[in-house]
Amino acid sequence: MSYRKTPAVVVGAVALTLLLGACAGGQADAAQAGRQPAWPGTGLDGFYGQKPAFKPCDPQLPPGVPAVKAECARLKVPLDYRDPKGRQAEIALLRVPARGKDPIGSLVLNPGGPGFPGTGHAALTAAVWAASPVTERFDLVGFDPRGVGASTPALDCYTDAERDRGAKFSSIPAGIDDWTRKETRRLVEQCAERSGGKQVLAHVGTRDAARDMDVLRQALGDDKLTYAGTSYGTRLGAVYAEMFPKKVRALVLDGAMDPLKGTHERRVQQATGMQGSFERMAASCATKQDCPLGTDPGRATKVFQKLLRPLIDKPARTSDGRGLTFEQAVEGVTAAMYSKASWPTAIAGMAELEAGKGDTLLKLRDGYHGRTADGLYPGSLEATLAINCLDEERHTPKQESALNRAWYEAAPFSDPGRPFKQARDGCEQWPVKPTLGYPYATGIEGLPDTLTVSVTGDPITPHEGGINLAKTLGGSLLTVEGEQHGALLTTNACINKAVATYLIDLKSPAEGARCKL
């Protein structure tokens, strides 16, 4: 992933993967499968005994973001924890040492996805929190989860040319270019071929990543884990808490995925949140002159559909000659939902589209995907797809079609208006069954207080999910009034103080605590 972006765009890109992660996985009987001792006596002693050799490195940061002094290393983990003597994976690490002379330990970070690298995220967070007491008391440590970023083997399913041609990551929007059974078979073949084999595809789920994080905790010299995760990072943190409750010191879970809802229910929850965000964007637009969605917010969805649906048959022209398709236009507008500050850009893109041009929305879409100016894509969304194949519930064509219908009913702004006979789950022929299980992270004993941070107007991980996660973990909840996905990188004084107090002093906000963006 390129980190030559503003923090807001990075946060938005992280959240994209929740939208596109329709590839499924998850069996209820696997929910408690991860609770087992990791070491010693399990053949993992050599991995837990590692001391990573950190050396100075120079992380790329967005323009205008101050440089940070970072150091990088690699960590070995077994590809299959049931076979410690077998094939290994290597996890890329980046650490920004604490600024103060009395550090508490390491704060391990995850930016979300799944599929987004944590190394650059740690450097960015260190820059944004340069004056925070958190960076004074903690080493900030980011890692690229197995299969992701600079870790090896890395997940890769599509070429850059295939990405530009509209490579599939989801069954939505159904009715335009649905997966065939042959294509789902080919997806597995090409992901395996480009990623190091089917064994790799079988061991990139969240439970594997949580085990890696415990090896990392020990390698960093911490008796217990201090962790902050955003978006999908809340799932990773919650699963770690389930698997290693006595190894948790503190967890900050920002923009929470709901641990109680299965794939269908959670995605409909997400679609509802996105439609709400679209309608609030439309209401804001309606107060301005020449709003491309009109002056009646109640009709904005129909106006938007009328504007975008012609792109299904004839993409809008763009200055680079690629054109803007219906799917790309929806992605571009969705990208702007992650932060209210981006709404004007999406509205400008819609106005431009009225004149038949798609450059602004295509630029938003490209930022969403991490596409560089020279047409290169990171592997983040390929990793998202593969990880979700192990995490999400595996759908039959009937179930996937039902999900699509429910999605469009909940988020009609994204409906292409085309009939479809059958939608397919891209993961239907994945080489192994899902490994996460639903619900997860329930009934945990011996877990210290956790802190869930949840934004009321979060379109991608709606506030309900944050409430449910906090209750499920028996932890504290900080409610943030605002319109965006996630809140840790907003530099909001109220949020920063609450998070720093919790991480440093293990003192949680009072019940009912609220901040406002």
From TrEMBL:
<keyword id="KW-0732">Signal</keyword>
<dbReference type="GO" id="GO:0016787">
    <property type="term" value="F:hydrolase activity"/>
</dbReference>
<feature type="domain" description="AB hydrolase-1">
    <location>
        <begin position="107"/>
        <end position="487"/>
    </location>
</feature>
<dbReference type="InterPro" id="IPR000073">
    <property type="entry name" value="AB_hydrolase_1"/>
</dbReference>
<dbReference type="Pfam" id="PF00561">
    <property type="entry name" value="Abhydrolase_1"/>
</dbReference>
<keyword id="KW-0378">Hydrolase</keyword>
<dbReference type="InterPro" id="IPR029058">
    <property type="entry name" value="AB_hydrolase_fold"/>
</dbReference>
<comment type="similarity">
    <text>Belongs to the peptidase S33 family.</text>
</comment>
<protein>
    <submittedName>
        <fullName>Alpha/beta hydrolase</fullName>
    </submittedName>
</protein>
<dbReference type="InterPro" id="IPR051601">
    <property type="entry name" value="Serine_prot/Carboxylest_S33"/>
</dbReference>
<feature type="signal peptide">
    <location>
        <begin position="1"/>
        <end position="24"/>
    </location>
</feature>
